[in-house]
Amino acid sequence: MPRGGTPTYHLAVPPTPSDPTDGGPGTPPARPARPARPAKKAAVTKAAAAPAAPRTRAAGGKAAPARKPTAPRKAAASPSAAAAATDHVHDVLVIGGGPSGSSCAYWLADAGWDVVVVEKKRFPREKTCGDGLTPRSVRQLEDMGLAGALAGAHEFRGLRSCAFGMAIEMQWPAHPSFPSVGYVITRHDLDQLVADRAAKAGATVLQGTEAVAPIPAGASAAPGARGRLPALEGAVVTSKDDRGTREIRARYVVVADGSNSRFGRALGTARDRDYPLGMALRGYYRSPRHDDPFIESHLDIRDASGNVVPGYGWIFPLGDGRVNVGVGLLSVQGRWKGVNTSQLMDAFVDFAPKSWGLSPDTACGPATGGKLPMGLSVGPRVGPNVLVVGDASGAINPFNGEGIAYGYETGRLAAACLGRALAGAGSEAVADYETRLEDAYGLYYLVARDFVKLISHPALMRACVRTGMHSQKVMETLLRIMANLMRPDELGTAEAGYKALATLARLVPDAR
Q1: Residue 65 contacts by C-beta under 8 Å, 6 or more apart in sequence?
Q2: How far apart are CA 304 and CA 249, in angstroms?
Q3: Among candidates 213, 218, 267, which has minimal Cα distance to 245?
Q4: Which residues of 19-28 are buried (b: 16+ CB within 10 A; e: fewer)?
Q5: Pairing mode, if any, of strands 158-163 and 294-298?
Q6: What is the torsional sign of CA 302, 397, 279, 338?
Q7: pLDDT, tens digit, for every residue of 164-202?
Q8: Alpha helix positions (H), 166-298
Q9: pLDDT tens-place string over residues 398-445
């Protein structure tokens, strides 16, 4: 396994008279001739706004200048019931059009498979998130051909960490597989870009369409074997256009409906409550520093009584006059569950550096929040023809609360496994998804869970933060580890430190 949990991908394509040449791990194969699709009524359209042309890399790895793209076009209305006729069986049905679902759909559709995505909301739509894209997210978006579309988003160079009156600015570390740049872009805009990209690749994206019930394989709704999800033939969906109900059938089903995952729970998924759970709240504020070149994190957030709690506050500049401001709290085995995140947010806004200009008067609206299942805490994730991806699988990084990158990556991993299954490998390829997840993230998330348990003790957290903030080198090492950017080609301080932590994690029983 590459150090730092970097997955590799190989996506099989539908049989064609002349198979394309595989570009190797991490490189999607050339796109084959697209298989015939069922006839659709003339009124049926797909949401397929084309992204701006991808940026080219100039000498030295710098991004060449690109014109600022126009605002994303509003996606077309959801297709009618005829677009997903019940007598047609798709290759893959994806439940949810967020990062993991749209990523999975893009890679499958781009390889030539017949994919349909059902998304209960209409794009563009709001989504509670920090809106920050780390180099891992940027890599996935670039691989999907969306580098040019990011040119209009606010670019930032790295992270500014603040605590106990000190601040350290850190550039994104150099890495052979990831760019040294990040962006801040609202999920309102980002999710539409990726869903449109999937549609342009050939996926059918049904907006305003909610999967309300699974269609079990066979005559009964028998549950899957212990530790496995049941087999499905598809899903019953309802359309917000006409409130009509119909069935969509597919050979394989991907559950990508987010952290609440109603569809997943209907199949039997559940969060392991011994794993850490994140709780976050965020809002938008007008700020004179909206175009700051660094995102900012505060490691000493306090409750209403002034006590430091495990978590952090953030200020992410959007470059459009606004900043995304939020607080994230880590709860381990129910500890800190009773903390009021609204009060925590109010205290952070009052505590933040005055240069940001944060106050109730500069708030753009009420803050919104949600729970963040972390460390692959949700399972089962595999059935005979079912896979669970992204936040629905609890794939958020416990170190830093990042979920977008792992949504893109797990969606792409699922696509690779399903491509092999559709090409003839069947259930063996589906089951391999769990192995691929474990290879990419298992040990890293084990170390992260141990870290979260450590900082859940206030005295230990204060000691760790105070020590780290006195050393640029220590903080840069932590950034590389916590952002999952360890290099696979050399053993530096971060790689050596992670290796030592991983060795300890293997030796100590995982009490979660």
Answers
A1: none
A2: 51
A3: 213
A4: eeeeeeeeeb
A5: parallel
A6: negative
A7: 999 999 999 999 999 999 999 999 999 999 999 999 999
A8: 187-201, 262-267
A9: 999 999 999 999 999 999 999 999 999 999 999 999 999 999 999 999
Task: Answer for the pair 490, 176: CB distance below 8 angstroms, yes or no.
Answer: no
- Rounded to a whole number of angstroms, the distance between the first and last alpha carbons of the chain is 23
Question: What is the residue type of 182?
Answer: G
Two tokens, residue 7: 């997955």
Q: Quick count: other Cβ atoms within 10 Å of Cβ 307?
A: 10
CA 379 to chain centre: 17
Q: What angle do CA 223, 229, 230 make, to 5 degrees?
A: 45
119 DSSP β-pair partners: 207
Q: Token match 């958020």: residue?
A: 396
Comparing CA positions, the residue from 169, 104, 4, 28 lying closest to residue 392 is 104
111 in Cβ contact with 13 (< 8 Å): yes
Check: pTM over 0.70? Answer yes or no.
Answer: yes
Secondary structure in 3-state letters for 337-380 = CCCCHHHHHHHHHHHCCHHHCCCHHHECCCCEEEEEEECCCEEC
